[in-house]
Amino acid sequence: MTPATTAKVITLTIDDREVGAREDQTILQIARENGIRIPTLCFLEGLSPAGACRLCLVEIIGTGRVLPACTTYAAEGMKVRTTSEALEAHRRTVLELLFAEGNHVCAVCVSNGNCELQDLATKLGVDHITLPYLNPVHAVDASHPRFILDPNRCVLCARCVRVCDEIEGAHTWDIMGRGIDARIIADLNQPWGEAASCTSCGKCVQVCPTGALVEKGRAVAEMKKRHALPQLITRNKEHAS
Asked: Rounded to 5 degrees, what are φ and ψ at 66?
């Protein structure tokens, strides 16, 4: 039997506050343990970190670099700054890009009031968009008997991809294309209702931070989601029985 390895205990500074941690912890994990807020959108506890949204970028003092807190591991003596005028401006720009690249009309969205993108915009003071809207035209996929995919509201956080692969084990979802042409697809770009690998568990719907994946029959502001993975697993077992 292989003995368990013990991670080395280190000390680092976050926002001028000295904290202890393990060397196998990320900056985001350490910050959350110490009540330090770093905004995230693609991160979800229990799933592998993706570093996709870039909202959690922090400054590593003395290096001149900014790195994603969710995928950067701590080191002895590291000095981290989680908030500054430059970081806040960067985060607002990221949110503006997400709003400009999609069709996020909150007033008619079933996730209005229960949307992480909307919450972040409120917290970071994004009350208008200074960038030109792209106004993409993406067809809504309502082929599934229980759920709807609206790619117009997708922020490519890949939560659905990771929960379907890592928790459900189906790997129905993936991302096709690059840059502005990237989008979520089911199986090999099939209508969701025709995806043979889909178990209809609903985990992807529950972890989606916006109104991109929702349950059918929901009216405006009615779609409330449960992101806790243990709760999702229990709910899936009950549904299967």
From this structure: -115, 135
**CB count, 10 Å around CB of 19?**
17
**Closest among 167, 131, 205, 196 to 48, alpha carbons compared:** 167
Q: How many CA atoms lie within 13 A of 73 on its CB side?
A: 9
- Going by C-alpha positions, the residue among 64, 65, 46, 43 that lies closest to residue 54 is 43
Instruction: Compute the distance between CA of residue 129 and CA of residue 152 in angstroms, rounded to an integer.
Output: 17
Q: Where are the beta strands (DSSP E) in 104-220?
A: 147-149, 173-176, 183-186, 213-215
Quote the pLDDT of residue 2: 46
pLDDT-derived band of residue 41, with 50, 70 and 90 as boundaries? very high
Q: Which tens digit of pLDDT belongs to each residue from 176-225? A: 999 889 999 999 999 999 999 999 999 999 999 999 999 999 999 999 99
**Distance between CA atoms of 199 and 27, rounded to whole angstroms?**
35
- Which uninterrupted H or E stretch holds 235? helix 229-240
Q: Do 49 and 5 touch, CB atoms closer than 8 A?
A: no
How many beta carbons lie within 10 A of that of residue 39, not counting itself? 22
Taking every pair of C-alpha atoms in the chain, what is the biggest distance, in angstroms? 60
User: Would you state the structure tokens that stand for residue 141, as one six-digit string?
Assistant: 């996929």
